[in-house]
């Protein structure tokens, strides 16, 4: 028996709000090990009526197995193709929704498991109304790792009001359409690392409210790119770090997006970014035209450090690598852009443009000295000098010519061995040392999706 998806126990207890940890890497994740949980109880979904025939709906079997193991244990989905036909929740719902639990772990023990959403069946008809693949709500001390989320009818993974969780060794591959976000998180004390996203929308995006989140070793392989937002009224985001982010043929390398609104974003580090072939690179846009203006003077951005960005953008004269458009009603303060060397792939010039953006250090690029923090108009400066040291490596797996479409089934990817040039995984792939002789690719295939 080769288990492909194990859902470790949901011990139902009230969610605790944890204090922010000094080193998030040490404190997130489940509280007990799989062997410990296995010794308590094992609930194999095939003992609850699930059949690996790719056609019979396993929802009741999955729920029954969960309930039976909810006081502690491991829910096992053995190797095979299973169909999930019943979602839960509002709007399009969710195929798997996990809430109000602690000490939870969901992973594929061979690293070859996947949830195949068959979203193309919806997208082919121009519909984005299908379910999301996976959603967690008010979960604490948990992990999601070592499997793929493929072709979701809507978002792939959303984490809402969770804490002390980590997500790692994941490949997310969606259709070539807006609205098929990779990972969206609004939570506290989270570590998201070693994740690859191919889609046409959000790669790994932080929303409000969020505190103390570390996102690192991220490969945005033909996606919208990583972002923060969109930010609305009473935005409350602090202590967010993105580190080692590789972005290829995406809309942007990092975007903070809002239009009006209120509240604050404070203490953000965007460090070690490499980009190639992207439209925008650093793109702070507090007049984002894809969003209807909200009430409020604008979200106050404070202490945003952008460090060590290299690579190239698609066309630096059309969309320059630094665009920092802050709200005139709430000028940005403490913006720092250092070791930033990006150059254009088209033509021989590029621009930097800032609006109402202030720095506390030496005003570089288009930033202004932070003493008065008054609104000022966008002031693009154009350069024909390629910055020294902009050359940056590429990933061997960059999509060569096209992203995945919307009309045909999207193949399940294998998990990459690295998500950023020269950087190894934090945690070795599940099953890396115990892979079966002829590994089976397995999936949960929602063939018929019901709207809740
Ligand atoms: C979850 O982990 C945090 C440390 O990150 C700890 O303080 C908290 O007590 C844990 N929660 C539970 C329910 O054990
Ligand atoms: C800058 O980023 C590159 C990867 O692009 C990395 O190799 C290098 O160590 C980083 N430099 C610093 C000072 O962190
Ligand atoms: C990224 O693109 C490459 C090249 O097509 C592909 O092999 C790889 O699987 C893609 N990654 C994902 C997660 O789809």
Short recap of the structure:
The protein has 452 residues and is mostly beta strands. Helices cover 6% and strands 43% of the residues. The radius of gyration is 22 Å and the shape is globular.
Write the layout of secondary structure elements.
Layout lengths: L2 E5 L16 H4 L6 H7 L1 E3 L8 E5 L1 H10 L5 E5 L2 E3 L10 E6 L2 E6 L6 E3 L3 H4 L8 E6 L2 E11 L6 E17 L9 E16 L3 E5 L3 E12 L3 E7 L3 E14 L5 E5 L4 E16 L3 E4 L14 E14 L8 E4 L7 E12 L5 E6 L2 E2 L8 E2 L11 E3 L59 E3 L7
Parallel strand pairs: 2-4, 3-5, 5-27, 6-9, 7-10, 8-10, 9-11, 10-11, 11-12, 12-13, 12-14, 13-15, 14-16, 15-17, 16-18, 17-19, 18-20, 19-21, 20-22, 21-23, 24-25
Antiparallel strand pairs: 1-4, 1-7, 23-26
The structure holds 2-acetamido-2-deoxy-beta-D-glucopyranose (3 copies).
Subcellular location: Secreted
GO biological process, one term: carbohydrate metabolic process
Keywords: Cell wall biogenesis/degradation, Disulfide bond, Glycoprotein, Glycosidase, Hydrolase, Secreted, Signal
